[in-house]
Amino acid sequence: MLEIAPELSRWLDEGRAFAVATVTAVHGSAPRPPGAALAVDAAGTVVGSVSGGCVEGAVYELCREALAVGRPRTERFGYSDADAFATGLTCGGSLDVLITPVAADDTGLRTVLAAALAGPHGALARSPAGGALYVPARGAPRGSLGGAAVDGTAAAGARALLRDGRTGVLRLPAGEWALVESRVPAPRLLVFGAVDFAAALASAGSFLGYRVTVCDARPVFATPERFPAADEVVTGWPHDYLAAEAAAGRLDARTALCVLTHEAKFDVPLLEAALRLPVAYVGAMGSRRTHTDRMRRLRAAGLTEPELDRLRSPIGLDLGARTPQETALSIAAEIVATRERATGQPLTGLRAPRIHRPAPDRPAG
Length: 365
Fold this sequence. Notes:
Elements: H1 5-13, E1 18-27, E2 37-41, E3 46-48, H2 56-69, E4 73-77, E5 94-102, H3 107-118, E6 122-126, E7 132-136, E8 142-144, H4 148-164, E9 168-171, E10 177-183, E11 188-192, H5 196-207, E12 211-216, E13 232-235, H6 238-247, E14 256-259, H7 264-274, E15 281-284, H8 288-300, H9 305-308, E16 311-312, H10 324-339
Parallel strand pairs: 11-12, 11-14, 12-13, 14-15, 15-16
Antiparallel strand pairs: 1-2, 1-5, 2-3, 4-5, 6-7, 6-10, 7-8, 9-10
């Protein structure tokens, strides 16, 4: 439900009753990952999606039913060749859904949900019995899943999932379980080189949910006016800026770094530092000739072969890109493929179904 936080926060403020259906798990090929949510208020207004269309109608009716009877429920949607008219996923997979009604007079639940929806960094645990526990990144948990012992176990497990930025099912004592949804600050995309490709990539990164920084040592080029889609534009030597951000703890395992300068005096000291950091992606623009020279310089600087193997260069997937926008698309596609551990190949011809994996580096918020 955290993915539709703005809408649900407004409904809470307005005192609306509603029910929210959230995907707890997917099996095989499914269109939406765990955490995908659809909510319906008492008037029948709907926001969000759990399947991209396959089972939305059935989930809508289940939300209305749960709101009317005041009890949560779980449901599994799959596909059956035996009944062509049954509600299910045409992609052949299945998904599990938790439906939680939120009554207008349920002050306790509404208070917990309001804190979770407003908090920029925390985990929300909900059980099929209707309990809710919000575990902020800092501070004491709020709410309950059913007792001190259960809440202690749930809080510890929720913090572990939160550290990885993951959403998933947490097993509790006595065979109980809870869905834990993590909400973490947006992952960072650091773009080095204030060039036209950087402007297009900043737009693509923002579209994908990244907090985008453009950095260049040349103040005449590194201006906010040239990069309106960037969250910040920094003037400074790239390797100095990167070192300062790493020292301040502002980089993590979801961070993507794109080096677009293809100039050795900027690239080499920057990549020497970047390839030693525990970030998700490091890519560098340049021709294959530039790449060969860059690798020679990096080896001379002391980087090991495993460190060099992390470098994506020439940057991006082979899309035949020529314009800055097309190049940004190819880079963004490679970042997503790397994050999801995907092949980057056309889905046509791939035999194995695409499965949503709970990756720690998925953008969330």
